[in-house]
């Protein structure tokens, strides 16, 4: 009877209005995440740039210099043709998406033991971790903006960046709610996620221009259709449109990103709400 009553209470607590009432708890989880992120590290937040910069250097050499992926790259709005910057623009979107997704999947397991002792909405730590990852990845965004300023490739379209960052984080949060709650019971999901992200990375126009797909497979091919249907591809294209081409996202593309984000949050919340009440028992 006690277990049943505990489950009912947990389910009752897993409501959006309760998460809003626990705003201070979300803030505490975000602060805790940022505080412990580089705990004991001498260089602290410098490490938040080391990994993406190392990846950027490797991809630039392998794909830009050796494989010549920059040959299909269009010039920026001001005539800049620096493949590293073009690549970094795509990586910023990708790193934000994967940062929120993977941290929430791992993080839900970490707070499961705490959930056995204290009753709180399980969504609160996921929301807090999402805020923390956005803050951390914003360092990359700011660095990229500074690079564009130095290159003179700057315009009013940059005002869309906060909108795109918010949509990317919410889209990833929706996916992470579903995957994290299922991963608590089926631990193989986290390993499968790593494999899927590797495949998704190369199916997204980050290290190659989007025009490559249409050029090699044709606009009517199945591969091109799947490519266009990939929401991450649309996110990357939107970032490049805003920062590289200095254009506002096309209305159809922006609407598509909003729709994808709503679908992700709706489905993620539906699965999460059913599974969240069992997090403490199954972890």
Automatic annotation (TrEMBL):
Transmembrane segments annotated in the record for this chain: 45-67, 79-98, 118-135, 167-185, 192-215, 254-272
One term under GO cellular component: plasma membrane
Keyword Membrane in annotation: yes
Locations listed in the record: Cell inner membrane; Cell membrane
One Gene Ontology term of the molecular function aspect: ABC-type transporter activity
Recorded topology in the membrane: Multi-pass membrane protein
GO annotation terms (biological process): lipopolysaccharide transport
Main location: membrane
Domain ABC transmembrane type-2: 43-275
Presence of keyword Transmembrane helix: yes
Coiled-coil positions: none
Pfam families: ABC2_membrane
Family that this chain belongs to: Belongs to the ABC-2 integral membrane protein family.
Name of the protein in its database record: Transport permease protein
Organism listed in the record: Oryzihumus leptocrescens
Taxonomic placement: Bacteria, Bacillati, Actinomycetota, Actinomycetes, Micrococcales
């Amino acid at each position: 009877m006690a277990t049943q009553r505990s489950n009912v209470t947990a389910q009752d607590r897993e409501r959006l209005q309760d998460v809003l009432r626990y705003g201070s708890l979300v803030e505490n989880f975000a602060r805790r995440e940022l505080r412990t992120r580089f705990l004991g590290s001498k260089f602290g937040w410098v490490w938040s740039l080391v990994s993406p910069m190392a990846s950027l250097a490797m991809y630039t050499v392998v794909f830009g210099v050796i494989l010549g992926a920059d040959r299909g790259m269009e010039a920026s709005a001001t005539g800049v043709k620096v493949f590293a910057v073009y690549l970094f623009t795509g990586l910023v979107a990708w790193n934000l998406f994967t940062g929120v997704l993977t941290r929430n999947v791992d993080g839900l397991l970490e707070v499961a033991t705490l959930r056995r002792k204290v009753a709180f909405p399980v969504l609160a730590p996921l929301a807090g971790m999402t805020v923390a990852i956005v803050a951390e990845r914003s360092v990359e965004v700011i660095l990229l903006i500074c690079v564009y300023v130095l290159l003179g490739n700057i315009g009013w379209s940059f005002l869309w960046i906060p909108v795109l960052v918010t949509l990317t984080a919410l889209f990833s949060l929706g996916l992470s709610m579903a995957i994290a709650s299922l991963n608590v019971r089926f631990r193989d999901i986290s390993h499968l996620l790593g494999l899927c992200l590797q495949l998704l990375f190369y199916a997204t126009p980050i290290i190659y221009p989007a025009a490559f797909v249409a050029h090699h497979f044709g606009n009517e091919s199945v591969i091109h259709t799947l490519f266009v249907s990939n929401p991450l591809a649309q996110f990357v294209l939107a970032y490049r449109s805003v920062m590289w081409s200095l254009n506002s996202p096309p209305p159809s593309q922006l609407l598509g990103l909003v729709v994808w984000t709503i679908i992700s949050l709706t489905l993620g919340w539906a699965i999460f709400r059913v599974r969240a009440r069992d997090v403490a028992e199954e972890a």
